[in-house]
Amino acid sequence: MSGWAALLSGLDQHLKQETGVDIGLLKVPRLRLAFNEQDATALQAILVQQQQFLQGLEWLNGESARKIEPLLSPKVQEYWSRLMNIT
Predict the structure, then answer these.
(1) CA dihedral in degrees (34, 30, 50, 77; nearest 10)?
(2) Which of 6, 44, 60, 68 is packed most tightly, with the most Cβ within 10 A?
(3) pTM of the entire structure?
(4) Residues 34-81 pLDDT 10s
């Protein structure tokens, strides 16, 4: 982990320990959806850049996306997600 991700990792727990306040941070997947080839190309370029700074980013096809989120439109072709532990 590097950059901002390293600095912010565990910040919520540190704040809770220091202040007793739980800020209620939820770590959930973030989905970036591609509905056509142009979207997919643009997102793939962003993904390559983001993978340098964030761990856990991966590219999935629409079928895999719907296994995670069954209510996604059938029009979703591909997406990438930052998979994180849910607490």
Answers:
(1) -20
(2) 60
(3) 0.56
(4) 888 888 889 889 888 888 877 778 888 888 888 888 888 877 765 555
Token pair, residue 7, equals: 């600095």
- d(Cα 82, Cα 84) in Å, to the nearest integer? 6
Question: How many residues would you count in the chain?
Answer: 87
Virtual CA dihedral for 14, 15, 19, 23, nearest 10 degrees? -140
CB 23 within 8 A of CB 87: no
Pairing of strands 30-34, 57-61: unpaired
- Helix residue ranges per DSSP H, the chain: 3-8, 11-19, 37-51, 62-68
Assigned token pair, 13: 């727990």
Per domain, the residue ranges of the chain are 25-87
Q: How far apart are CA 61 and CA 44, in angstroms?
A: 12
Q: Under a CB-based contact definition with an 8 Å cutoff, are residues 76 and 35 in contact?
A: yes
